[in-house]
TrEMBL record:
Keywords: Hydrolase, Iron, Metal-binding, Protein biosynthesis. The active site is at 132. It comes from Amycolatopsis panacis. Coiled coil: none annotated. One of its GO terms (biological process) is translation. The lineage of its organism: Bacteria, Bacillati, Actinomycetota, Actinomycetes, Pseudonocardiales. Removes the formyl group from the N-terminal Met of newly synthesized proteins. Requires at least a dipeptide for an efficient rate of reaction. N-terminal L-methionine is a prerequisite for activity but the enzyme has broad specificity at other positions. Belongs to the polypeptide deformylase family. This is Peptide deformylase.
Length: 166
């Protein structure tokens, strides 16, 4: 099992738009394996490549009985129905804030053989799919907070030992 070191809020890789995967080789397979291994510990729902310092469009997920990965994901459907749900992030540890997320999400991408795959989720899985796709677009869940909550989150993050730019 290859657990990769996490990157934390303040690290520029987390605010960068990821490049698409173009080579489906052993390096890509190793990245997917590391993402799947690193999302396994209790309390983790998803992990995107930039969270381990890799600027490629890949993420893994492990929500309930749904476990897998998506390479080059694109959100193709977002329900109009939303709900406010407590959200946290491995790259912003210890901070949880109510975040508005869609109830239903569909993501399309490819697998390690460059074959099309689709992942569809409701509730927590929908939240995870959006959260991880946001990472690949250089966004953190903090960017989705109301202005007041974001201000509070940034204040709290700057006081944490893990904050990257201390």
């Amino acid at each position: 099992m290859a657990m990769r070191e996490l990157r934390y809020f303040g690290d520029p890789v987390l605010k960068s738009v990821c490049d698409p995967v173009t080579s489906f080789d052993g390096k890509t397979e190793a990245l997917v394996r590391d993402l799947l291994d690193s999302v396994q510990p209790e309390g983790r729902a998803g992990l995107a490549a930039p969270q381990i310092g890799v600027g490629l469009r890949v993420f893994s997920y492990d929500v309930g009985k749904a476990t897998g990965y998506v390479i080059n994901p694109e959100v193709v459907h977002v329900s109009e129905e939303t709900r406010e749900i407590g959200e946290g992030c491995l790259s912003v540890p210890e901070l949880w804030f109510p975040t508005v997320r869609p109830d239903h999400v569909v993501v399309r991408g490819v697998d390690l053989r460059n074959e099309p795959i689709q992942v569809e989720g409701t509730e927590v899985l929908a939240q995870c799919l959006m959260h991880e796709t946001d990472h690949l677009d250089g966004k953190l869940y903090l960017d989705r907070l109301t202005p007041e909550r974001k201000k509070q989150a940034l204040r709290e993050a700057r006081g944490k030992d893990w904050f990257w730019n201390r």
